[in-house]
Amino acid sequence: MSDKKYLFKRNNVWWVKLAVPLSLRSELGYDLRRTTGEKDLEKAIPIRDKIIEEFKTEFQIRKVNADDKGIVLRGTEHMQKTDISDPQYFHKVVDCQYACPAHTNVPEYIRLIAQKKYDDAYMLNWESNVFPGILGRTCDRPCEPACRRGRTHDKPVAICRLKRVTYDYKNDIDPYLPEIPKVKNGKKIGLIGAGPASLTVARDLLPLGYEVTIFEKDNKPGGLMRTNIPSFRLPAEVLDEEVYRIIKMGAELKTNSYIDSLENVIDSFDAVFVGTGAPKGKDLEIPGRKEASENIHIGIDWLTSIAFEHTKSIGKKVIVIGGGNTAMDCCRTAIRLGADDVKVTVRSPKSDMKASDWELEEAIDEGIPILDNTSPKEFLLDDEGKLKGMKFEKMEAQYTDGKRKLIPTGEEIIIECDDVLLAIGQDNAFPWIEKNIGIDFNEWDCPIVDKTTMQSSHPKVFFGGDAAWGPENIIWAVAHGHQAAISIDNFCSEVDLFDRPPPLTNLVSQKMGIHEWSYDNGISQEARLEVPHADLKEALNDLKMEVELGFDEKLALDEAQRCLNCDMQTVFQEKLCIECDACVDICPTDCITFTTNDTEEKVREKLRVPALNLDQDLYVSGKLATGRVMIKDEDMCVHCGLCAERCPTGAWDIQQNNYIEAHNLNKDKAKAKEVA
Amino acid sequence: MSYFKPINKHPNLEKNKLGLTRRDYEGGVSTLCAGCGHDSISACIIEACFRLNIEAYKVAKLSGIGCSSKAPAYFLNASHGFNSVHGRMPSIATGANCANEDLLYLGVSGDGDSASIGIGQFIHAIRRQVNMVYFVENNGTYGLTKGQFSATNDLESKNKYGEDNLFPPIDLTSMAIQMGASYVARSFSGDRDQLVPLIMGAIQHKGFALLDIISPCVTFNNHDSSTKSYDYIRNHNEAMGKTDFVPLGEEIKTNYDEGSSVEVKLHDGSRLSLEKTDNNFDPTDAGNSLDLIREKNKEGKIITGLLYVDNKCKSLTEIMDLPDKPLNTLEQDELCPGSEILEEINKSLS
Questions:
Q1: B71 to chain A, minimum CA–CA distance in Å?
Q2: CB B269 within 8 A of CB B334
């Protein structure tokens, strides 16, 4: 076993990750993870081996159970020929796009950046994720951990920061916006909350002739993007441009309009979309909470009051409780408001913190200590009844069967403070939805929403974003918005909600002549480029100064060249193959093997380099003249196209896989294609 | 067109005893036609050197002129190389072999280079038992000059333009056995399971090792009437029993039934394990080998595998009793016998 196999690092601690066999994924999820609790690789390795054994036993037990139930497991028969007409097959090869909830075509927009076609790159983003400038600064970036480059090289392409480049370098894109019909279709849609989910629904419905009304409780649209993301991460002008672009498409915006009764509005509309987010910050009920309430603030409310400039100062000593991204925003904001001693405390070990790695890093870089395994016990008051500090107890994490338990150690510490910010989670809350109008709620007071259609138990009411299933992030809200808009359009057109448009896909050969391809396969072997930052001292004194400066054009073009072009698919036709092995010999990462067919397990073992990453599929051809099959392990392919370049018969071809997730703007195209 | 291969490799790539991967034995990206059999042979040489833990700087690649003779540029980047005049590679190899026995000599030639212009050189290198591996990348055509017949093209095999071949072919394997080559094998570029062990055996063999490898020319000799096309060879290949190369000190891993394999011990103690065939073929009997080749030729079959091996022969440097050390490392006291010896010689002449 190689040194780091199955291991990955999270905040300097080694974790074990093992992919779940295909047949068990519906039960166990994609992979099993557990921390070794060790920072030292040497010490982590024996623990890793033990954990892997336990995981394997778990698989074995599940498999036996499955057999008992009479379920036929994939893998007892020879591998089937890969069906590349299934749009999901090549989509999955484009790791970044597959990981993105909105399935933005990342390699294509990076290619457009490389060609300096910033407007096109921006529009490609805008069509699929609606807020490229905002997301390019704040996205949770599920695409980056998925990036193939993280497997073939070291670090992923800086996808998120390249998205920002499309915003920073574009020109006027108004001419490319969809046309809004002057004659409306007569259907009225009410959107509650002006956050990313509702705005996406509005954008997807306006071009179809819907009349859209958005209700917002605050005096400006944007939702959490405005109230909870500090402007040193997301400048107001970026937010305003992208939010008002949608409003200007013809949505009627009603600000300062808190809806206190759904029943009152529901009859004025043909359908209602609820995108009210998760606006209720969790409180911490421990001794002293009531007495000291003047100096204890709910993190998201506090950030909101800063965004609207109601709050302009904070005490000198501040404790932030919580380990998520809100906690990071709170502590960094506090330091900019003039606090000179800010500490973050979190109950769990640092490695389990929910904050994105980069947001945690930014906070640490700004000199903020993170005290982990520290559980709040009591707010302490001085003689005058004012908050003077907090008592904490140190915890110890123990892991059994992959489950974490925090055990109190009895050791207590006291930290002085003037103010406390609580960032320990947030919930969606619907005090304004009447219980008797047909919307069912589950035991946790969350609405029951269909995962595909976003429809609630009331046929006219749809949910999306954090309002649907609790806190996620902007890109998920966008994805929900697209789906809800499709459903609303179906609903208003009296089409079955499950009759959804398929993705638009196209495979286009890139061959331009002998050995010539219409894409640039000369990838950069350089390491990931760092984004320039503003001077730390200046940034800490200015609440509105953007900390990240973004790539300049040269850095952007260099970084774009790191993309491996995973959308350029290697398409194989067995009837043309003469089995000369030229592709096998040229492949730089040894992904191609010609061998006899067998069960997936055995095939994975006998490849030129055994295919151990079960997350990645094998591309299996039909039978060749010699009775063998071609098997390509998609895991390490760098999409250089050399297999096709060295193929004498054109059995290999490089074809661009254009996968566009359906939304209302391209729905007609998708439907027409399906009919054809 | 790409001239470079991305430098990144599969992180789990196997390493040999030197800590090197297969990719460390590569050369430049081939500029031969896509699908050329010669590239497969290069890949097999890479594989064999990788598995034998050979240090590339202890290898000399020698070649003449032709498509085949370009091939050394596409493997073992870190080796020595000499690209000679057309057909004269055997002379260079002979000289180099005498001067430095420590290097491994890989001569890469083709049917034009060896069976036409260089045939005299070829024969004498065999006769002198030059310690080298001599690859004939045999495609039956002159690819570099647009597809004329070569001297190894079969009588019934037309050229790409439909013209008849008027002259019978030279069979390099029988000729080599007759001239005294001590390791003779024939293989097919498209069968690397067979070819890699044969190359490994040839490298470990001491003396002249000929590998006649049929290597289809995808551009000029891979058409329907060709007898050196991928399809024709696959349909007419009469492979001898499987050959396995067993490095020194390793157990045989293949599971032949007892008594069903023949072992040939090579000079360094490594072994070749040959699966026995029905006809009781004995690869150490030259007469037997020649008969078999002739017989299969008559049947229209192409016999491949290890055809002949003589593991007791003396190599060129042994025959000539040359010093074991490379000549350029000999010191003055080794080169100059000294005045006492000179006195003796002078005395004997007086």
A1: 14
A2: no
Q: At residue B253, does pLDDT exceed 60?
A: no
Contact (CB<8Å) A582/B36: yes
Superfamily assignment of A177-279+428-492 in CATH? Answer: FAD/NAD(P)-binding domain (3.50.50.60)
pLDDT of residue A1: 44
- Cβ-Cβ contacts under 8 Å, B231 against chain A: 578, 625
Residue B260: what pLDDT? Answer: 64
Residue B158 confidence (pLDDT) above 50? yes
Q: Which residues of B touch A579 (CB under 8 A)?
A: 190, 230
Question: Any CB–CB contact under 8 A between B8 and chain A?
Answer: yes
The answer to whether the A177-279+428-492 and A281-425 domains have the same CATH topology is: yes
Query: Who contacts A65 (Cβ-Cβ below 8 Å, separation ≥6)?
Result: none
**Mean pLDDT score of chain B:** 90
Predicted TM-score of the model (pTM)? 0.84
- For chain B, domains (ranges, CATH) are 22-327 (3.40.50.970)
- Chain A partners of B30 at a C-beta cutoff of 8 Å? 586, 646
| A166 closest CA partner among A660, A477, A474, A556 | A556
A121, A112 Cβ separation under 8 angstroms = yes
User: In the prediction, which pLDDT does A74 show?
Assistant: 47
A233-256 pLDDT tens trace: 999 999 999 999 999 999 999 999
Residue of chain B nearest A524, judged by CA positions: B6
Distance, CA of A224 to CA of A202 (rounded, Å): 17
CATH code of A281-425, in short, is 3.50.50.60
Residue B279's pLDDT is 63
Mean pLDDT throughout B74-92?
96
Average pLDDT of span A492-508:
87
- The minimum CA-CA distance between A637 and chain B, rounded to whole Å, is 9
Nearest CA in chain A to B193: A595
Which of B9, B34, B43 has the CB atom closest to A588's CB atom? B9
pLDDT attached to residue A426: 87
CA distance B35 to B188: 14
Q: Which of B6, B33, B230 sits opposite A640 (nearest CB)?
A: B6
Which of A77, A78, A124 shows the shortest CA–CA distance to A100? A124
DSSP sequence for A558-616: HHHTT---TTEEEEE-GGG-----HHHHH-TT--EEEE---BHHHHHHHSSS----TTS
Cβ atoms A439, A433 nearer than 8 A: yes
Q: Positive or negative CA dihedral for A361, A367, A372, A374?
A: negative
Tell me the percentage of chain A whose pLDDT exceeds 70. 95
Q: Where along chain A do its domains lie? A: 7-68, 177-279+428-492, 281-425
Each residue's pLDDT tens digit, A131-142: 999 999 999 999
Nearest CA in chain B to A520: B2
- Reported ipTM: the value is 0.88
* B34 contacts A590? CB cut-off 8 A: no
